[in-house]
């Protein structure tokens, strides 16, 4: 329970390890993609791109899974939707570096995460990806950078996880207090 109360879409969000393999309906997936499309971005550059695979295409799903570090593969294999976000690091207008690219990719991903919660779908983001492998497998151009992994799916059966992951899944979620994050008139 958050204090003060915040919207359930935010309060109930967390990053599970136990995913059900139940596929996500294509209409729902379209909503998640639409949510990302309408994220804000510097100069409306929309620097986000996503390479994704769904579990009904086993080969594509396995290929995407192979771009995650082994520790993430262990649980993400069950997730019916896997993606890698990719940032366009230059502005289309002048080719100069877009220093907000990663920031804006994060915003688009959070839009997906919140829209997913609205549909009862959980998300687990991952820094543990293999960027060089992503670049090679999917022929990512030089001015794009792989950013993070994203697993989406309905909550599964915690008991199916390896024991170490069950312990992690049951662990407490913590945050530092708000007054160590927000500073009125000072840093
Ligand atoms: C950019 C990013 C990278 C993350 N990388 C990983 C990861 O590689 N493996 C993992 O299991 N969780 C990863 N996480 C999940 C975080 O550990 C998690 O969001 C954090 O502990 C807070 O927990 P909560 O999302 O349940 O509130 C990542 C989250 C983000 C946003």
Which features characterize this protein?
NADH Oxidase, four-stranded antiparallel sheet, alpha+beta, 34% helix, 187 residues, 7 helices, binds flavin mononucleotide
Helix content: 25-40%
Main sheet characteristics = 4 strands, antiparallel
- What's the helix-strand series? HHEHHEHEHEH
Pairing-aware structural class of the strands and helices? alpha+beta
CATH homolog superfamily: NADH Oxidase
With strands numbered from the N-terminus, the spatial order across the biggest sheet is 1-2-4-3
Strand content: 15-25%
Question: Cα-atom Rg, whole angstroms?
Answer: 17 Å
Q: What is the oligomeric state here? A: single chain
- Number of DSSP E strands: 4
What is the CATH architecture term? 3-Layer(aba) Sandwich
What is the CATH topology assignment? NADH Oxidase
Low-pLDDT windows of residues: none
Total domains, how many? 1
Please write the CATH class name: Alpha Beta
Determine the number of helices (DSSP H or I, runs of at least 4 residues).
7
How far do the termini sit from each other? 28 Å
Ligand names = flavin mononucleotide
Averaging pLDDT over every residue, what do you get?
A: 97
- Tell the overall outline: globular
């Amino acid at each position: 329970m958050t204090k003060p109360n915040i919207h359930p879409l935010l309060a109930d969000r967390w990053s599970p390890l136990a995913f059900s393999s139940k596929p996500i309906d294509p209409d729902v997936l379209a909503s998640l993609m639409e949510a990302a499309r309408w994220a804000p971005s510097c100069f409306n550059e929309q620097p986000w791109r996503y390479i994704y695979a769904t579990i009904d295409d086993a080969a594509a799903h396995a290929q995407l899974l192979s771009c995650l570090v082994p520790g993430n593969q262990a649980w993400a294999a069950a997730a019916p939707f896997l993606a890698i976000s990719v940032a366009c690091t230059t502005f289309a207008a002048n080719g100069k570096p877009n220093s907000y690219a990663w920031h804006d990719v994060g915003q688009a991903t959070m839009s997906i995460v919140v829209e997913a919660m609205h549909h009862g779908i959980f998300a687990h983001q991952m820094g543990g990806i293999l960027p060089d492998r992503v670049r090679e497998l999917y022929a990512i151009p030089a001015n794009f950078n792989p950013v993070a992994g994203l697993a989406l799916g309905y909550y599964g059966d915690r008991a199916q996880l390896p024991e170490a992951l069950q312990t992690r899944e049951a662990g407490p979620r913590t945050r530092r207090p708000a007054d160590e994050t927000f500073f009125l008139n000072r840093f």
